[in-house]
Amino acid sequence: AGQPDIEEALHLLTQGKTVLAEDIFERIALEERQKGQNSQLKEAIALRHIGSLAFLHDTQKALEVYQRSTELDPDNMNGWNQLGHLYQRTGELVNAEQAYLRILDLVGADR
Predict the structure, then answer these.
(1) Predicted TM-score of the model (pTM)
(2) What is the DSSP string of 8-23?
(3) Would you call 24 exposed, middle or buried from its count of C-beta atoms within 10 A (0-12, 13-18, 19+)?
(4) Cβ contacts of 31 within 8 Å, gap of 6 or more
């Protein structure tokens, strides 16, 4: 078997195997981080998947991975939206507002 990929992890999610899928996403993120700048978007995708899994059971972990994903892929509105929700959940309302305002900036840039 080759190296795990996002498709494999997504397939595991459809089978309810969230722990295995999260492990694959974490390994992908680590591998991509080690590859450097060219892999930032792929790392950000893997981090967003980790964040969506952690969102349900580990707010701090979800917050950390969404923060990192928005650093790597600052134009991804979903990352900013989830980060805003997490800041709101933790009572960091100023940071939540900044995350949501970033989405408005991105929407304005698309017009």
Answers:
(1) 0.72
(2) HHHHHHHTT-HHHHHH
(3) buried
(4) 3
